[in-house]
Every structure is written in structure tokens, then in C-alpha cells.
Amino acid sequence: MAIRLPLAKLSLWQQTAFCCALLERMLPNYAMFSQAAEFGDVNVLRNQLDLIWQRLDSKQKVKLNFDAQLEKLEEQIPDPEAFDFFGVFPALDVCMALMSLLQALQSKDAQEFANVSRLSHNSVSYYVELLLVEESDDADDELSISQQQLNQHPLMEWELATQNELFDFLKQAPENKNTCQQAKAMVLEEGLSNLGIEI
User: What domain of life is recorded for the organism (predicted)?
Assistant: First the structure.
């Protein structure tokens, strides 16, 4: 069940805040991978996300050099071929989501914003699939994991609920710093990343 929120109905500001909040839930996945693999610098991603949050605060005049930021980000992208453990995939999703957001801020393209939503959702979907395969002893079960089983997994339900709740909140909220703080608090209140990793 792909997630299809009508992000184009939100203002540019709201779409940006939505993506930033989703990235807050994804970032710990990169931090954990980076530590385990001794690859990349999570601070680069953290700083870029903070800069985008700051841009949403009209009192702060933040200028972003997109090309320079994208270049910095590219250096942090792991190559899945180079790592033989699962953590590389969510880490890659974080980088791709942040890249999509930076490109969206340049192009103002709703599809680029929607990519962030999809990447967060896909990260969870892939992880849940692996969990379900591990839980079943039969190797053939990989083929028989149904969409229903995926959708009914608590992590998957939580991901969908979080994205919907965030969307509904931002749709009505004023475009200010307080809304940013509330959106951030909303997605981090469980103290877990979107994969259920403790932050």
C-alpha cells in the first residue's frame, strides 16, 4: 500500500515542514549505520536539516547554497554494494530523502517533496518485510508475505498514522517557528526512529 498524501495541496512552507519532520524520524537510522560501519558523518546531515528548519523561521534569513550542500551530502551516501548488512539501506534512504528535499526547495516540485514521504514509507516497508521473513522459519514464506501482513505490522501502521497525523496538523497550522517545534515534537515523542530504533 503506497502512501499517497495530497502534498500538492499544502503550501511550499507546509510541504517543507512535513519533509523535515519525516527526516527527523529517519536520521537516527543513518547515525546508527554510520557508527556501526564507520562510514559517513551524521553531523553533515544534521546540519543540513537544521538549516532547512531555520529557513522555515521567517525571523531568520538563511541562505542555502544548494549545489554546495548537495555536494557535501553526496560524500555521505553509502554504496550498498560496499556494506554487507541491512543498515546501509535505511541510511541510503535518509540521504536520498534529504537530497529530494534540497532539490524540492530548488525546483518547488511537489513530486520531489512526495519522494521524502515515499522513501520514509519504503524504509519501513522493507524493514518490516525482513522482520516477517525472519519470524517465519520457512524460506518459501518470503514469497507468501502478503500486503495485508505488511500493512498490519505495528511499525507500518505507525508510519502511516504518523504521516497522516503530520499532514492533518500542518494543513491547519500557522506557518511559524512554533508550528515547526510542534511538528518536531509530534514525530519524536516516542523517542524512536521510523524503524523503531531508540533515539
Answer: Bacteria
- Which grid cell is 39? 562510514
Structural domain total, the chain: 1
What's the pLDDT tens digit per position in 36-74?
999 999 999 999 999 999 999 977 778 899 999 999 999
* Domain span including residue 85: 10-134+141-187
Q: How far is C-alpha 15 from the chain's CA centre?
A: 13
Q: Which three cell numbers stand for residue 25?
A: 524520524
Whole-angstrom distance, CA of residue 102 vs CA of residue 18: 13
184: buried, middle or exposed (CB in 10 Å: 19+, 13-18, 0-12)?
middle
Query: Which CATH number is 111's domain given?
Result: 1.20.1590.10
Q: CB under 8 Å, gap of 24 or more: what pairs does 181-188 form?
A: 183/17, 183/18, 183/20, 183/21, 184/20, 184/21, 184/24, 184/53, 186/21, 187/21, 187/22, 187/24, 187/25, 187/162, 188/24, 188/25
Report pTM: 0.95
Residue 156 belongs to some domain of the structure = yes
